[in-house]
Amino acid sequence: MYFLPQRMKPKEYLVEKCINFKGASAIIYLCLKFLKNLSTTKTDTVLYMRVIFCGKFSTYFHLCSWLWQKQPSYNHVYIPRLVAEGKTKKSSGDFHLDRLLPSTGWVRRAWQLSEDDLLSSTGLDAVVFMRIFTFSVKVFTVAAVIGIFILLPINYFGTQIHASDFVDIPNKSLDLFSIANVNDGSKRLWVHFCVVYFITAFVCYLLFIEYQHISSTRIAYFYASKPQPHQFTVLVRGVPVSRLGKFSESIRVFFMEYHSSTYLSHTVVNTPSRIKSLIEVPAAFVSFKTCYGAAVASDMRQSDNPTEWVTEQAPEPRDVYWPFFSPSFMQRWISKLVVVVLSIVLTVLFLIPVVFVQGLTNLDKLKTLFPFLKGILNITFVSQVITGYLPSLILTLFLKIVPPIMMLFSSMQGFSSYSRIERSACTKVLIFTVWNIFFANVLSGSAIRQLDTFLEPKNIPIKLAVAVPAQASFFIAYVVTNGWTSLSSEIFRVAPLLCTSVKNCVGSHDDEAQSLPFHSEVPRILFFGLLGLTYVFLAPLILPFLLAYFCLGYIVYRNQLLDVYEPRYETGGKLWPTVHNSTIFSLLLLQTLAIGIFGLKKLPVASTLILPLLIITLLFNEYCRKRFLPVFESHSAESVIKKDRENENDPTMPEFLEKLPTAYRDPALKPNQEYAGYRDHNTPLLSSV
Amino acid sequence: MYFLPQRMKPKEYLVEKCINFKGASAIIYLCLKFLKNLSTTKTDTVLYMRVIFCGKFSTYFHLCSWLWQKQPSYNHVYIPRLVAEGKTKKSSGDFHLDRLLPSTGWVRRAWQLSEDDLLSSTGLDAVVFMRIFTFSVKVFTVAAVIGIFILLPINYFGTQIHASDFVDIPNKSLDLFSIANVNDGSKRLWVHFCVVYFITAFVCYLLFIEYQHISSTRIAYFYASKPQPHQFTVLVRGVPVSRLGKFSESIRVFFMEYHSSTYLSHTVVNTPSRIKSLIEVPAAFVSFKTCYGAAVASDMRQSDNPTEWVTEQAPEPRDVYWPFFSPSFMQRWISKLVVVVLSIVLTVLFLIPVVFVQGLTNLDKLKTLFPFLKGILNITFVSQVITGYLPSLILTLFLKIVPPIMMLFSSMQGFSSYSRIERSACTKVLIFTVWNIFFANVLSGSAIRQLDTFLEPKNIPIKLAVAVPAQASFFIAYVVTNGWTSLSSEIFRVAPLLCTSVKNCVGSHDDEAQSLPFHSEVPRILFFGLLGLTYVFLAPLILPFLLAYFCLGYIVYRNQLLDVYEPRYETGGKLWPTVHNSTIFSLLLLQTLAIGIFGLKKLPVASTLILPLLIITLLFNEYCRKRFLPVFESHSAESVIKKDRENENDPTMPEFLEKLPTAYRDPALKPNQEYAGYRDHNTPLLSSV
Predict the structure, then answer these.
(1) Membrane-crossing residues (chains A, B) (predicted)?
(2) Into how many domains does chain B fold?
(3) Is residue A426 part of a domain?
């Protein structure tokens, strides 16, 4: 770990980072004591002493917030959605003692809710989000049973570690449960081989079922929906400059010419310029009389020049991201490229500024910079906090700002909707996490040497096979500290609670319920899935911890979706392909590791026999891409025509069509009291920071 | 060269192969004498003795065929298209002495023809094919001027080769003209650096102009065309089984349901089974009343299940490839994967069977196998022919069967049209040629070591930089022998002449004019373009030879397109994206080589400064892909609607629409005399072998 102060081990470091900042509950404390009992060397003792210190502090803090949670004065922190929907009062002001007793009612309520109820109250996106948890629980229940009852005994009764290195056993007691302890060339390794095949088959089967279920739910959801503006509208970009210099006129002429029977109206997009006047942008929302008309216009290339009259399905009106309507095809394309480069640079070079800032804040440097603090810095407690706490705090702060930065990058890519931006940011954060938490931890050595490894692809399996199992205990601690504590801070809403407390002092109030930040939550959940699948046959001890994470997460997020978060948009489950692709990547990583491990363990036949599995997994992914992905990209002719026929019988249609031309009215053109809302739209990224 | 008999050098080998089989004209003979004067070592003398021997033989042969060409009895060999179109008599039978005098009239005629004339007489595909030559002539005129007048003197006045190795100068006299002779670290290398930048910019500029010109020609060609069946028709595959078990009924119901206003008729595809009865395939040609109707149906996903009701633009009726209508989505997908694997295997492992067969046919083995031939084999001339001629003949024969094999592979991929199959085969043959002629020659060592090189990407530039310049003289000889002779054998039509002579003896005649075999011709031309761009700054001596090839080719193929080949289909220039991509690949290869060369020549700054150029080239390609490629994939709404309006005023439209339902009638259902034609369709691949 090149970004750590020299004295610290990576395990020690990240555990502390997570614990310190997030806080930990009493359960975590017990679990870490169990881990501590397994491995009791001197450095580990120091580590777990710190963990206990932080754990205690966090437990008290969380307990307090648990009690606060039941006080109506914090309703807008813990049930803001219900407050916003007017289902409960904001605050009664009174203090009741019985509210200090903990209750488990919310757990029962979150558990009993059916998927249909969730769908009707929170939309399909939330349902798809929850299916990540049900999918993961299914996978890791089976994996944990196999891991604990089959692989763990095999690993434990091996003698490899005793044979090779019998002095240092206490230090490696966790390794006794990993594949490292199985003897080289042992026939028992074939059990591990079978597990790799079985897990791949099982996960692929579940992936197929999920994709099928979600895509058919998506179609049913479309059929069942009321007529909505975005179903009748396309976004047109690259409108060529007309002779009159007015985009509006040339749009009307074009669509009257080529879509005369279905064209209804259009709204040209404006952006406010610096001098407060509005500038027309060569983009417009064009509405049609039927869904079919809109679908045809968005699916077909409109103009002979492919860079003009570029159409796409319009987002929902509430989902439109107004600020960045870049004028031309070329500008959009260049900004997209710039963003890709920036994201790669941020991902690869992220650790360099972290190390630099960490280097600035060591005790000696501080003493030189601020000589007047020398007295305070010499106190043992203060110096302990600075050496132990500050580096991890810096890393944590840097990690915290990554999702907002990625959101900012995605918003510059020229996407027209907030949902598309968030989905793109989600992918970027996921890649960032996998690279900086998994690979940077696993592969030791300098950044340049890591790049070297990836320029020699055939060495990757072996290098990973050496490095990954060695980090098993670190990642177990990571799941406990980062995963479990993130759930507890999610349910106790630490950050909003602090914000509200500060605001209460200042006297201002902000009642708007926020939407679930998919771009920071989904990557974390998917990363735990990756950890689980990667370690399933290497060190199965991680599986119960992960299973607990997913079970807790299932309850916690169901509660949050019902009470806390207000959906900001509805994409009909477009998130799932990201989840699918991430899981396929995890499977490929698992197989690459298996190839390396069996090579190291002197079972080259098994190593070779994994290759067909790798190819089959790729083929499976390709098949799913053909079979299901188009459903998430556009609606079929069959769907939209059926929908149009249903709409014909809908008595609200005339009224709906009457309102349609104003659905995409630019917020900047609305009266003043609504203009505040526009300014909110204008700065969503700052508010999400 | 691992596939050669031990004694032979690669240069010697391939020159001989090409010369022996193709024959060479007197000009080639002189050119090779010039090359011989440049490098006169002992082994080279042996080589060029052989060349002269073969060259003489070929010259006589070609002279004979030139004379024959003027005899009307060979009209169906030299002007089959005119014969087929009835513009000239097949054979008069008389012999006239004045016809023995050579004429140059055809050169003037081919030269004077304007592009519009060519377009009207041979279609857009032929025009696009000819634009490969005009494009290449422009590129290599500029490149040759720069190469000969700027780079060649700089190279010649360097002293690197004298300094490093002054004993062996005669053997390396060709290298004196290459970049190898410029001193390491010399500032003159910056001239080469500028040339790399200039050539890239110039080629990109030309590529852009060409793409723009061809795409606008394509659109204009569509507007100017008469109404044609394929503009009104889509091919539907994956028709689900109806309750009645009849596809025809379920197709009618589906399109009446969802395209009631534009649907006209449909024709279900049948394939003949082994027991002579017809089997309905779940595919159909569905015709519409307007182009727009067909375009909408082909651009939109039709069904909620993306693997059912899969639509695509129909090919022309004459272009439909009937034999392989694989029933299901899954089968088509699997056969495609199998074909991809087979093509890769053929490309990578091609040289293994060649070496094996070559090993079987050496003199000693033959003596053991056929003891009774011992007397004949001991004759010096026979043994010379066998040792010198047989290995190259075997390689040539193996190379000759590659294009038909690739055609066979492509036909198994489930494409619906002959044009699509040929385009796919064209790409496959191109990749095959680049790998087996360029890389296999350039990189010495075993096949496995080559693969190793490509698994370590960062070593590629250096390895190529060492290997490629060393092969300059070999590739000059390759251009002369393979390129020039292929043109001469094209104009003299050696193979058809022999076929006809044989058939004349047997007494059968086949008057059908063949179409230009794009899949074997285009890869050769593009490969010469790759050679030229690769060697432009390494060894500019190759450029005049290439320029001569492209100038000759321009005249020869214009003549062939007018008189010999009958277009089998018209795709509207869909070939050009392949040409564009191939040229971009050549530029990237040039830049990769430049990175390696400047590294070797101790000018690392130049090496680094090439990197931005590489990225800019990739971006340029990406931009072209967005800007022009869609034009080649489908027609825009604007195009088809304008076309429909024009058609409304066309008096022939009612008659056309009346005939439309029968345009895609299965040849198997036509009366007997037409069934012969069907059998031809059924075996196009055997006839093209």
Answers:
(1) 139-158, 189-208, 337-357, 429-448, 525-557, 578-597, 603-620
(2) 2
(3) no
Q: How far is A239 from chain B (nearest CA, A)?
A: 14
Domain region containing A479: 118-225+455-632
Claim to verify: residue A235 and residue A199 sit in the same structural domain: no
Residues B459 and B599 in one domain: yes
Interface check B286 vs A, CB under 8 A:
no
- Considering the domain architecture, whether residues A627 and A505 belong to the same structural domain is answered as yes
The per-residue pLDDT for B583 is 96
Is the Cβ pair B337, A619 closer than 8 Å?
Answer: yes
> What is the rounded distance in angstroms from the CA atom of residue A283 to the CA atom of residue A332?
12
Extended strands (E) in B227-375: 233-237, 263-272, 278-288, 310-313
- Within 8 A of B290 by CB-CB distance, chain A residues are none
Residue of A218, A308, A638 to mutate, interface with B, max B Cβ within 10 Å: A638
- A97 in contact with B at a CB cutoff of 8 Å? no
Residues A279 and A159 occupy one common structural domain: no
B577 and B487 in a common domain: yes
Domain identity same for B549 and B588:
yes
Q: Look at A627 and B455 and tell me if their CB atoms are within 8 Å.
A: no
Q: Determine the Cα–Cα distance for residues B483 and B462; give it in Å rounded to an integer.
A: 29
Going by C-beta distance under 8 Å and a sequence separation of 6 or more, which residues neighbour residue B250?
A: B239, B240, B241, B242, B244
A251: Cβ–Cβ under 8 A, 6 or more apart, which residues? A236, A239, A266, A268, A284, A286
Q: Does B98 touch chain A (CB under 8 A)?
A: no
User: Which pLDDT belongs to residue A45?
Assistant: 39
Residue B306 belongs to some domain of the structure: yes
Cα angle, residue A512 at apex, residues A510 and A516 outer, rounded to 5°:
125
Cβ neighbours of B299 in A, within 8 Å: 299-301
Q: What is the pTM of this model?
A: 0.82
What pLDDT, in 10s, does the model give residues A364-417? 777 777 778 777 877 777 777 777 667 767 777 888 889 999 999 998 888 889
Considering only alpha carbons, which residue of chain B is nearest residue A223?
B304
The residues, ordered by sequence, that sit 6+ positions from B616 with a Cβ below 8 Å of its Cβ are none
Q: What is the pLDDT of residues B200-238, one digit of tens each?
A: 999 999 999 999 999 999 999 999 999 999 999 999 988
- Mean pLDDT of all residues in B624-638: 93
Which residues in chain B are closer than 8 Å to A296, comparing Cβ atoms?
A: 296, 300
Is residue A610 domain-resident? yes
Mean pLDDT of A67-83: 62
Q: Is the CB of A641 less than 8 angstroms away from the CB of B258?
A: yes
B457 reaches A (C-beta below 8 A): yes
Nearest-CB residue to B303 (from A259, A329, A636): A636
Q: Is A616 near chain B, with CB under 8 Å?
A: no
- The residue of chain A with its CA nearest to that of B337 is A619
The torsion region of residue B9 among left (phi > 0), alpha (psi -120 to 50) and beta comes to beta
pLDDT confidence of residue B454:
58
Residue-level pLDDT at B20? 39
A515 belongs to a structural domain: yes
Q: Specify whether B465 is located in the same domain as B593.
A: yes
Q: Which residues 319-338 of chain A have a CB within 8 Å of chain B? A: 329, 333, 337
Identify whether residues A217 and A245 lie together within a single domain: no
For B636, which of A301, A456, A628 is closest by C-beta distance? A301
**Domain containing B286 — which CATH number?**
3.30.70.330
Query: Which pLDDT band holds residue B176 (cuts at 50, 70, 90)?
Result: confident
d(CA B262, CA B376): 76
Of B232 and A679, the structure prediction assigns the larger pLDDT to: B232
Question: Could you give the ipTM of this predicted complex?
Answer: 0.80
What's the rounded Cα separation, in Å, for the pair A549 and A330?
46
Distance CA B468, CA B464 (A): 6
pLDDT at A403: 93
Distance from CA of B303 to the nearest CA of A (A): 5
